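Exercise 7. Given the encoded structure of a 336-residue chain, write a plausible sequence.
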């Protein structure tokens, strides 16, 4: 059994990660960290694990953590994560990092969009980007994988095959995404209190959301040309889930059936991407590692819809998929 640890294990992504790891046949969870000096039992924070996991959270001590685990998942916020990840790698651990710290190729882009100095600039631009369906070859050999943002996964999974094959134009790509509130994490914030968001939908981060440069970067990598992605997320009164509606122009009069053929071919060996001619919905993928994608046409515009669970395919499921690839396990272990 491989010993795994989670840094920042009291949050929402860690909760889902623990659930998955408990059913993974090749791992045992040996260390969960939190800054809480009272070292609560795991069930005092995540009551779901009552009688299932006999561990207490402990503050992170790098030496102790590295002697207790073979592999680390880092579920910290951006900037806090890169303070830690480099130390874990230097001690010989493999790591999947959930934060945005290693997703962007340029330190200057990170510092502009995240408004903070990068704590580990030397690893930026050298890290595998964790969508296995698109970057498996670099993930398999990596010591560090940057788990992607939840919105970028929902947009890039449908877009990349179409851009690669030239079926759609790059001049205007409009991504309109709806997310559940767990996307903001567990920490208290007035904006996400129940009376503030229940029975209400609002757009946020218009033109400024930090996932925009991440989407741009990957699209640029695949199609070579600059794109002008317009990305607007909306907060919706759901616990979890992302639905992205993506408006693109077709090239060479390609229609929805060409789009579906392209996806069916590109993803034919990929168990977690489901192509459907029916409707996609957050409920159909809730609690799963699936990303469902569909295409329709409205006048000259191809309308793509994509649904995933922000905490699973958008975070912890993708992380375990990456972990499986990095460790040579069947990629579906624990998540199918
Ligand atoms: N939520 C999502 O849908 C989602 C999707 C994709 C990626 N992500 C990314 O995944 C990471 C975790 O997200 P989350 O939703 O699980 O967040 P969360 O629920 O707020 O949990 C964050 C965890 O980090 C710890 N923490 C917070 N600030 C810290 C700091 N300054 N130094 C050290 N530890 C700190 C907290 O533990 P203690 O307070 O107990 O120490 C907690 O365990 C973030 O980088 C996020 O952007 C989230």
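Solution.
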């Amino acid at each position: 059994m491989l010993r795994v640890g989670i840094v920042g294990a009291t949050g929402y992504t860690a909760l889902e990660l623990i659930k998955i790891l408990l059913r993974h046949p090749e791992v045992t969870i040996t260390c969960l960290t939190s800054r809480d000096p009272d070292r609560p039992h795991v069930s005092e924070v995540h009551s779901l694990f009552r009688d299932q996991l006999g561990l207490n959270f402990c503050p992170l001590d790098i030496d102790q953590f590295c002697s207790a685990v073979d592999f680390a998942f880092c579920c910290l916020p951006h900037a806090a994560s890169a303070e830690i990840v480099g130390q874990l790698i230097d001690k010989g651990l493999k790591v999947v990092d959930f934060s945005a710290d290693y997703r962007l190729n340029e330190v200057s882009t990170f510092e502009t969009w995240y408004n903070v100095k990068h704590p580990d600039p030397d690893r930026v631009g050298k890290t595998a980007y964790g969508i296995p369906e698109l970057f498996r070859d670099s993930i398999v050999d990596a010591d560090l994988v940057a788990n992607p943002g939840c919105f970028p996964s929902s947009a890039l999974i449908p877009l990349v095959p179409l851009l690669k094959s030239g079926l759609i134009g790059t001049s205007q790509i409009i991504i309109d995404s709806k997310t559940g509130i767990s996307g903001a994490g567990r920490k208290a914030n007035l904006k996400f209190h129940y009376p503030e968001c229940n029975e209400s939908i609002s757009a946020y981060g218009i033109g400024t959301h930090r996932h925009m440069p991440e989407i741009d970067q990957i699209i640029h990598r695949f199609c070579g040309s600059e794109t002008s992605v317009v990305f607007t997320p909306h907060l919706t009164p759901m616990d979890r889930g992302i639905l992205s509606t993506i408006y693109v122009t077709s090239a060479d009069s390609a229609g929805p059936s060409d789009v579906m053929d392209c996806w069916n071919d590109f993803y034919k060996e990929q168990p977690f991407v489901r192509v459907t001619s029916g409707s996609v919905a957050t409920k159909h993928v809730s609690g799963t590692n699936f990303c469902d994608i569909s295409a329709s046409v409205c006048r000259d515009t191809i309308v793509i819809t994509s649904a995933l669970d922000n905490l699973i395919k958008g975070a912890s499921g993708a992380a375990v998929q990456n972990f499986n690839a990095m460790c040579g396990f069947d990629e579906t272990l624990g998540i199918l």
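Remark. The chain has a mean pLDDT of 96. Students should compare their own answers with the one above.
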